[in-house]
Inverse folding.
């Protein structure tokens, strides 16, 4: 799908058209042949567990306005992914976290987002609702609210598999 910013070539300014390249329709300059490659957008997210429950945030904007998801957000260019997840959790929830381990990378066909999910441990801060959210709260794993992103179910399943016995506070 051609995006609005792909109307003109960034190299020579000539009009861009869709052409079959490497098995897909891609924006290509009609004059110089430059292919405009769209890179995926990386999102860093963290699973925070406490007393057998996981922290979820209720979105105040689309996509998924009013629905719940794991806390996280876009990684800035040049930012270390682990630093991005800590920054996003601080901005969204007020919590300072320590990254324990990577849970996994998640993507879906046709979606430009790649999700990097980490198991994180709160080490400070005070739970609060960030400016892009409506609510922040912990939910039991077997009683999650309506989710904004269906892949959060897969993420939590992978998190449980990657934990030796589930959430850290359930291992005691």
């Amino acid at each position: 799908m051609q995006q609005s910013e792909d109307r003109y070539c960034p190299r020579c300014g000539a009009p861009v058209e869709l052409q079959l390249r490497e098995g897909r329709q891609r924006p290509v300059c009609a004059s110089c042949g430059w292919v405009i490659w769209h890179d995926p957008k990386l999102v860093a997210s963290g699973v925070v567990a406490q007393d057998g429950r996981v922290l979820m945030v209720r979105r105040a904007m689309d996509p998924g306005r009013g629905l719940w998801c794991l806390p996280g957000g876009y990684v800035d260019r040049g930012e270390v992914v682990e630093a991005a997840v800590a920054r996003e959790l601080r901005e969204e929830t007020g919590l300072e976290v320590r990254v324990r381990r990577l849970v996994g990378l998640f993507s879906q066909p046709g979606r430009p987002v790649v999700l990097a999910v980490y198991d994180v441990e709160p080490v400070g801060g005070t739970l609060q609702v960030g400016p892009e959210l409506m609510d922040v709260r912990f939910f039991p794993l077997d009683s999650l609210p309506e989710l904004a992103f269906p892949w959060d179910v897969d993420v939590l399943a992978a998190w449980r598999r990657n934990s030796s016995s589930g959430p850290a506070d359930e291992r005691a």
